[in-house]
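Q: I have 346 residues here and want to know how they pack in 3D. Can you give me a structure?
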Amino acid sequence: MFIRNAWYIAAWANEVSDTPLARRILNEPVVLFRDKEGKAGALADRCCHRAAPLSLGQVTDAGLQCGYHGLTFDCSGRCVAIPGQEKIPQKARVRSYPLVEKDEFLWIWMGEAEKADVSKILDYPYHNDYKKWPHKHGLYQVKCNYMLLVDNLMDLTHIGYIHGKTIGGSPMTHVQAEMETTPTDTGLKFTRWMPNSAPPPTYSKAVPFAGNVDRWQEFEYVAPTSIIQWSGAIDVGKEARTNRDQPGFSLKLFHGLTPETETTTFYFWSTANGYRQDDPEVTELLYQEIGKAFLEDKEIVEAQQKRITEMGEEALVDVVSDRARIHMRRTVERMLKEDGQAQAAA
């Protein structure tokens, strides 16, 4: 089941051009494109004439032209041209989806268009601060339900086991982390501290630490599918808890998990370098290291999905480290219920 009355990332803004891009979102076929003025549009990927995918067409001066018989549609989904026919039937249109370009993302609303409140799109200003947070973004298609990826990010005790050679380090460092969780109106926030711990391999490649570090992981989950992360480490004895804005390792991560189908997800991610901002090679190295870590996650959650598909998840057991994950699941369940009631009343 999907929450339809919510904002999802449809694409990175630079993915979409005047060449139509086919993408399935919440199991609905969507075509993304830019018109000749550069405005981005999102339409149902089905021509209203003979059901050909509009993504097989091309952008003309008038709009998106179907590649089968030439009907052309603007960003609102209205048919603006039919070859050989002056009068255009009023019902000659395709569904359009609210689409907003912001902070290098294209956000799409898959539910009732009149409920698409732009003010509910989260802010991610770090994408606009290239001097302080130089960054690079990526996209993985992951063969699992999106909730398994959210679960993965809510229980970070997996890091020492899955990511021992990259961002992890000792498993017990993560199991014994000091964690504070705060519920919010849109999800939750949590901060984890790992004092006097050995820096993991990715951190040591980036910064020449003197020895052990005070390490933190700060997460904000914005339901249903966005997670903002700030992680870093500073040499022990530098009072990191009261001042994280000092030399050391620091990065911002964005995780956007858009359901493609019930068992596949588009994982939009961005990593920003907050420690050696004037060196593009460092930003690239960080991107490569984080990308490697996320592929480690991809391997485990895809295997997890296969087993869940085969055997279900009814008999699974919760443990202490699931606290944030359980709160997240309750938030999503509440939103699903509210969304279902809204659709039933419509």
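Q: Anything worth noting?
A: The chain has a mean pLDDT of 95. Residues 169 and 200 are 4 Å apart (CA to CA).
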